[in-house]
Amino acid sequence: MGQAIDEVSMKILFAAKKLFARKGFYDTTIRDICREAGVHVMMHSYNFRRKENVLIALFQVFLPLTNIVNSNGDTPVDPVEGLKRIIREIVTVRMTDPEIILILQHEITLPSPRDEIVQYLVKPLWIELKKVLIEGKSMGLFRFDSLDITMTFIISSVLLSRQWEFFEKANHDSELTIDFVTEGMSSLILSALSPQVEIVS
Description:
Elements: H1 7-23, H2 30-37, H3 41-47, H4 51-62, H5 79-96, H6 98-109, H7 115-138, H8 147-160, H9 178-193
Helix pairs in contact: 1-2, 1-4, 1-6, 5-6, 5-7, 5-9
């Protein structure tokens, strides 16, 4: 979690996360959230004022994408390791808190008046991924024609793909651990970006 927050607010956030993931933002009312949280509806108004503020707080607390930003500041990071770190951070959140990822998927894929808010909240991820890809291409480590298409492909693969649980009924010979999924996705994405792979137009 990303921020310190009082107990009542946390009850509201946990309840909202559960309901937004299950019912969606529009179909969840403030009364639903307060009933699930076991708090009086006035506490919602006091702590958050609007339902949109609950959504913002959810992403700030449960989806701290600022962790993805280079912790070494201006010190250069190997682009391959930087890309792996981004993938690991996203995979970790997906596998430890699928509800918050499901909410983010809803907000990104369905047009809404909250688009600008969500774009602002995920901007650290977008900026860091862009920086890593540009640096990797300049060093001859990555090969791609369109930066926008490449970024969309990576984000869609790691963040927006259908929940892995859907496929767990199929036979597989490995447990889906964070390490296993991170290594698998990193390998596939890095293979696609490899300068050794010929791009056929």
